[in-house]
Task: structure prediction
Amino acid sequence: MEHIRVIHEQGRGVYGSPRVHDALRQAGIRCSRKRVIRLRRQAGLRCKRQRRSRCTTHANPAHAVAPNRLAQRFQASRPNQVWLGDITYIPTGEGWLYLAAILDLFSRRVVGWAMGRRLTKELAIRALKMALRHRRPQQGALLCHTDRGSQYTSDAYQALLADQRITVSMSRAGNCYDNAPMESFFASLKTELVHHKRYPTRQEAQVSLFDYIECFYNRQRIHRAIGSMSPVEFERQWFQTASGTGVVAGESCPRPDSLP
Result:
């Protein structure tokens, strides 16, 4: 029970019984998942629940769209092979704070992000530039998949992709399943953090989101799709096996950007 309480606290109250069971096994503690469920219920430990969200995608019919080259093949064999992008909103006492993020499909690591008070193409571009700056992907070897929102179909965003020789892929209209891992990240962000906070200011929301993304989600939170490891640990082990160095591109923790 004490081990379960510690894991629950270290996981910031977001782990259900499957992740708690995985963490116990990694710590060398053998028990059944049914026992974990029973002990959690006795202790009154419950994970945070998901709420419904709203749509932030608005297409511009004047912009050209790319085909869905990813086609729901949510697998990558190495880092910087497939990136996913999307934008979500965070309510604050000063109004909406918008978060644009780039996710590496291989490790589920958030490799680029930007926050702002307006839903603009510049927000999406800042997130992409951060990912490019920290990851330095090989030109011609990366596919970037987003929805058909005007931020992603804009000339400026597409020009940046073309300059880096990044292949473009876009979800079909109105089909959230075409970008399911990205939707899953935002659902986790809302369920595990945003829905349990009240942010009087955008600045307070920024600090909280930075802590969740860079300190918790990327470096601590275990992800069952990558062997119950954190994204950073998963990448570290992959690079260690591939190169014998254990060095991961973009390993330094970025500082929060300021609001425009």
